[in-house]
User: What shape does this take?
Amino acid sequence: MKKYFLLLMASACISVADAQLVKQNDQGEKKQADLDWYNCSFEKDGVYGAEINKAYDFLKGKKIKKRPVVALIGTGMDVEHEDLKQAIWFNPKEKANGKDNDKNGLVGDINGWNFLGGKDGQVMESTMREGDREFLRLKDKYADYIFDGKDYYKVINEKMTKVAAPENIEEYNYFRNKVLPESPMAGSYAGWQLTYLIRDYAAKFDRMMKERFPGKELTQEEFGICYDPKAPRDSLSEVAFMMCAYAFSVYQSDKWEDVYKGIKSGAQIELSGKEYREKVERFGSDGRAEIIGDNYLDINDNKYGNNVLLTTDAALGTMVAGIVAGKRDNGLGGNGIMDEAEIMALRVMAEGEPYLKDIALAIRYAVDHNADVIMLPVQNTLYPEEQKKWVSDALEYAESKGVFVVSQVWDAAQDLAEETYFPNRWMTGKKELTNLMIVASSDKAGNPSMDSNYGAKEVDLFAPGRDIYSTYTGDTYQTGNAIGFAAATTVGVAALMKAYYPELTGTQIRNILLESVTSRKDAEVEKAIVVNGQRTQDLFLFGDLCFSGGIINAYQAVVAADKVSK
Assistant: This one.
């Protein structure tokens, strides 16, 4: 994710924030509008739900024509939950006999597949950030280069030494401009390199001051005078000067001799090197090589993983599944949107950021196993070019098979017209993907999630995704917030449409959903935004936050689908 504050948010997409674990009978007499309120309507219940109940009123007397298969590409899942058992997908060509009955190279893929599993039953509990993976991949080629805006340098024998430019400038610029901001390891390594630069420049500043003020005790005043803001200089000298100026406060002295002595000692170099090594120890490996043993940079190395789905992160996947397909009107939990759907669980996520290879292969697995609707992990900012093509090709494959695909925006308050996230409809570099929908969360009052990303063209619509009551692991239920709930609502509505109107393609479903929203176009809403790197709040018209200008509406969608299908 872009910038370090987003890296710290990674756990938010795989956990349920502000959640309350409850037993079924603890909900007492709470109204549906307080629980699985996405089913409700403003007209009847006073909340801006997706009008699922109203959609079922319209569909009374109509027969379900197919059980839509919904692939949830994300975390693990409790496939034995009492409120989900009827809605779990079973691979018709696989048996629980320890053999690869369907001959696809994946043994025991009965309810889905865990792409973060090993042959011995182990599972990865965390994954590295994409920025850190890219940093380690390119470190030996580019991490030692220091660029001053004109020339390139490296620290050789602990001295700043001018060197030739990197051979592949395009790849170097990608590393410098895209990878470094995404990786705490890269930032720590760059900081270590900077300490050598500061020591070199401190020696230059010392010579300059002694030449200009011979025999005088040098203080912070002389240091400031020595710096001529009008003189020609490179960006490195400016950075070094600022860091040396800051050092007066660090060493709590206005005497240059004290500051220079501290910098010259190399103590900061040693400390920064230690901090980098600690970062490598903490972030430099996620155990994939040991647990899975594949080459994550080779899309053709694709026979890996296991069928373990009840993992430590299964809570989120179980809640998402409950929104989509929890059994309706059975007195247990909330009502899922389409309880006749078949949920296929494809695990690619743990604490951290998913591997793009896993996402691409999961999409293809879903399509090849007749999925009608696919839910992807949350968007991300760093998609390395070759790996991005894997995902793009997989999405085009899904599009060619009529599959509808949904992803959700990050809660980072960013304008997607200014900051590019993936996946998006334009990522193929060719034509716009017509089957991919990008959604953001809305609350009961019909307001956008305060922190969600937004975009007048980049976000398609908003969907209920706050304070949702749903299934939780161990036959329990929970109310909470998580990135992904709005996508789950959207996926559920799409599954409802597909169940009654199976001839609809992913492209048609997207178009219908866009044209049938509960319009909030002219509503003035408060929204968090990021301006010059700082978070603030402003007022927007809802129509400026997404393409459709509204909130998903299942009733209006099925009415439109009914007309299209006649």
In short: The mean pLDDT is 93. Residues 184-212 form the longest helix (29 residues). DSSP finds 17 helices and 17 strands in the chain.
